[in-house]
Amino acid sequence: MPSPAPTPVLTRPVVLVLCACVLVAQSMVAAVNLLIPQLAASSPHPSHTQLLWTVDAYVIVFAGLLVPAGALGDRYGRKGALLAGLALFAAGAATSALAPQPALLIAGRGVSGAGAALIMPATMSVMVQLAGPERRARAMASWTLAIGLGGLAGNLGGGLAGQFLSWRALFALMLPLSALLALAVAVTVPRTARSPHSNLDPLGTVLLTGGLVAVLFGIIEGPEHGWTSPDILTAFAAGGLLVAAFTGHALRSRTALFDPRVFAAPRLRAVTLGMATGFFGLFALFYVNSQYLQGVKGYGAALTGVAITPLVAGMTLVPRLAARWAPYPRPVIGGGLALIGLGLLGVSTADAGTPYPLYACWLLVISAGMGLSMPALTLGVVTSLPPHQAGLGSGLGTSARELGAALGVAVTGTILSAHPDLTHGMGPALRTVAVVVLAATVVVVTGHGGAGKGTATATARTADTARTAAPGAMGAPDGTGPTAAGKAGRRRTPTA
């Protein structure tokens, strides 16, 4: 009898390739923001609204499709989902690069966002499956680092393209880069076992995606239209109704996309809120960073992209340290989120006379907070669901990050609009965000400690197992399956 094939393991080349895919997908959230002035004067001649949608289309489609994209990878293969995502990402970039009119430019951004929605859950899910429980914390630290580096790459790449190249060149560069990444994935990344128990649930997918898109639209467009305008109120109402309809459908269906009762676990609720909180604070900073460095300090676009590099230092160095403390997630998460809040309070004191080294020190504090908390929060979300739903767990976590990021931009933009200029509004805006982050930190730490170790996972598994009592139900976690951005003018600035 032939010996069984060896179980694939997570090797360094696989980690590098997967993290490179994450970096590229994340970078395009930010890069276009720094090109808005050039886009406004370019041949497609986009209107103000079309400029805003050029930025937002990527984020809205990306966040809206994350959950079903994760489930798709669990069911039909994560490596295949990753390759399909890279192909969609490249197709969208090509459409944007060649777009003769704004509508095609926006459509291309949306297609690229759909590709990113396939890339992000697939990369994390492959890492989770290959790493095994003993190396999972370090794998999540690497994945989180790639997100931070993607933000830096987007800001730097967008700044350089805006100053020395063109916006079309930035999109065109994504074509050979995507092809190279696809080749690397095909050669180095092994296939993981598919999960026949994961369900795509077309009706549930439409309801949940529609609800997330409506809520994101309301959050992103709220500062522009006014929070009490009919369009925004309608968007929030539609989003709430669609999410409620998904919940009712999922509780009745035997083949639901996922069981919403998993959120009965206090720990899963806590880590999801923690991820949203961290990105809420980070993107509030990104919203004012470019305006402050360019409008107040007088930096050029390229120098502005470089000036945010201190944010990468903590995200690079601290996650490895945090991985050693993986058995103690509660103090790691609480300490990291608290550092983000304290760093924002420090940045809120910056003005025209603030030396850049002092400003950079506060960026380092925020960076250390992100590097400390995000790997533990990411691991907490993924391990709160059964192994065969790793892609779905990744989609839920990334959706929480994107919602938090959009809300951070919206809240900061709203507060700034109530002040005559950035100099007067930056301090109150960031102080408000910092207080929210610190208050949410208390809730996260309390919720995370409100259940015993593994309670969230046990709750998720129990709910999932209960659904398998009848034929066709969601599969039991038996281990057989594979284990926004800125806007034109004062309303938006570069994000990561």
Question: Which descriptors would you attach to this protein?
Answer:
496 residues; 17 helices; globular
Tell me what the structure shows.
This protein is an all-alpha fold. Helix content is 75%, strand content 0%. The longest helix is centred in the first third of the chain and has 63 residues. The radius of gyration is 21 Å and the shape is globular.
- Structural class computed from helices and strand pairing: mainly alpha
C-alpha-based Rg, rounded: 21 Å
Number of helices: 17
Biggest β-sheet description: none
Shape: globular
How many E strands? 0
Distance between the first and last residues' Cα: 53 Å
Oligomer: single chain
Low-confidence spans: 450-496
Helical fraction equals: over 70%
Query: Strand portion, in percent?
Result: under 5%
